[in-house]
């Protein structure tokens, strides 16, 4: 054995072998050193490029290496959308508006585009000019994934909302196709069954007395969304109430847990929150399976190969194939969350404005009755209810949800219409909420509720159409008929975003909510609870009553 190992030992201990090993080791060290140096140089080069490109954008001078801490932390800015959506339910102190105001004030000082350094490598660019905003939203298709921490913690990875355009494209197209089918297929995007189910809920609530505006809006939104994604199976699903409660509990806590810089694994509360999220996932899988089986039994033969993508239940498709990279059902939970919270907010906003403006409510009722008279169908012909649609647009314009739109171009620099260059990777934000109340885009009554701003008057016997933003002028419906303006014609109308990542649900939600309100107002008058009057200081929105109309 020893005689066999001897030549090997001699070889290892020989001078030339040691020399060779030393050289090899040195070579490896050199390669490592060169690689690290080139990576570092590349980073430094990119940093200088970012600094030099950003230097042409106006903005406050940055004295600190860590950026403009005094104008709000990075988290404050990037969690806006989520924070604000949750706030709508929580009704917390509106601290984010303080930052928004600062942002707005900075625009007054530095012009329609200005920059802020959130850190040495993190650049924020804010745009206020509506034309430049439209242009930017058409060109910048990405969203920074790091901004969706709250979404990710709650629902896992998803290929919608906080990701690059390439990742979101397939999911967006599939969702848009499905919603377009619903829009084209029927006069009403939400079925009679859904409306009846919601009305039964309202009836049941009225037998108790007044209802909380936020709670009733939430339930309406949840039912519309659930039935749109899972079909009418959702109405018979025994766990629907539990699902709604879980979703809202998660909405309340999500931004809190996401606000930790390091995920707080050491906190018991975090694990309790995670178990809520797991329960939500299990319930989502349950309803996806139920609606899948339902669809399969009615529309396709489970054993046949014919039923491919087109025949698949929409929720199965979104939750499964498209989301193969992510968490099962991540997209569906994200959609339920976003859709429910935003739609709750819109419905709540419409209800609050209707109780505050009895005259508009009466006019909408007359309009509904006028349209109904000529129609033998049980469905609501909402396309003809122009004042109702204008009221929805106007409520969306004044909606406090989603005050900040955010975009990014991850690969290429953005060149705006005015020639200004925004470097790739910069977080571009639009203070949409303030823009929607800005007098220069909406006139002197920008902060007031005036649905007529979305209607033009077509004078009988002539082809001319003219603006009716003055309520008094518009109050005479006998002399003229109205034409509904496309709200997106005004570049400052951004409740659903715009451009490459605009809300996929916009048309659907407007038609759905219009159908719901047409049925609701046909049967009920919505009033503020008499005991509370106009001085209601309820923390969850005013208490309202639905008073049945006598026919
Ligand atoms: C009143 C209700 C709603 C409001 C106010 C609203 C608003 C928004 C906003 C502001 C955005 C970001 C747009 C942008 O960055 O340009 C968005 C994105 C989105 N919305 Fe909505 N939304 C509503 C309801 C819905 C509904 C009902 C659905 C679907 C059923 C939906 C699906 C989506 C999707 C999929 C995205 C993200 C698209 C992407 O990541 O590319 N939304 N929504």
TrEMBL record:
This is Cytochrome P450. It holds the Pfam family p450. The keyword Oxidoreductase applies. CDD domains: cytochrome_P450 (cd00302). Belongs to the cytochrome P450 family. The keyword Iron applies. Its cofactor is heme. One of its GO terms (molecular function) is iron ion binding. Heme binds at residue 503. Keywords: Heme, Iron, Metal-binding, Monooxygenase, Oxidoreductase. It comes from Salix dunnii.
